[in-house]
Design a protein that fits this description.
5 strands; 45% helix
């Protein structure tokens, strides 16, 4: 029987607060205005969904200009989360963004038929950087220290690796969660032909449907 590990997932995200490793590794990385690891989306019904679907992207946003009031608000919200562990405020913030029509969710909802309340979304790299630089050593270190822990608590049935930069982590995730179906798919901002995107949507929907039968 799968357990509801919401508390453990929140603890994994909160526990990343204060991590400076990648900015001390001589990689030439500089923090953006949002100077803390970003907690991500866990739908309120994720742990009762069948199947559980986790969408994995490569990095968070937040590398824009310091004058952007939205980024300043996010930075304060995420710092507060790392201090208090109050995930509900983070969930409320993301819920508002989703209802506003944030681009990332619309692709997974409209193309793959996913309900945002029933999925989780996380990144390989947890911190935004100036110029959106994410070298391999940073990705590997963050995956090993933070992402793998969160994935173990989420225990997804299907992992959608969204975008080619995430695809090298397929084998690592399969070792972490052997029962999961790890699917390499396109990024939501893919600029390919519509026919190709429709075919990819059909393929992924079939995989998710098959896992729902198994779960």
């Amino acid at each position: 029987m799968k357990l509801n590990n919401t508390h453990d997932a929140v603890a994994a995200m909160q526990g990343a607060g204060g991590c400076e490793d990648c900015f001390q590794m001589s990689l030439g990385l500089t923090r953006s205005l949002c100077d803390t690891p970003q907690p991500r989306w866990i739908g309120k019904d994720y742990y009762t969904a069948s199947p559980r679907v986790a969408v994995v992207l490569i990095n968070p946003g937040g590398g824009g200009p310091s004058a952007d009031p939205t980024l300043a608000h996010e930075a304060n919200l995420f710092r507060q989360f790392h201090r208090t562990g109050d995930y509900q405020k983070v969930r409320d913030y993301f819920t508002t963004a989703i209802r506003r029509g944030d681009r990332w969710l619309s692709w997974y909802r409209d193309s793959f038929g996913l309900n945002h309340d029933e999925i989780a979304q996380l990144n390989i790299a947890w911190c935004p950087t100036r110029e959106n630089r994410y070298p391999g050593p940073m990705l590997r270190h963050c995956f090993s220290k933070h992402t793998s822990r969160l994935l173990r608590t989420l225990e997804p049935d299907v992992v959608l690796l969204s975008g080619s930069a995430t695809h090298p982590f397929a084998a690592d995730i399969k070792r972490l969660i052997p029962h999961s179906e790890v699917v390499r798919t396109i990024h939501y901002a893919n600029r390919g032909a519509n026919a190709d995107k429709l075919e990819e949507a059909r393929r992924v929907k079939e995989i998710i449907a098959a896992k729902a039968v198994e779960a």
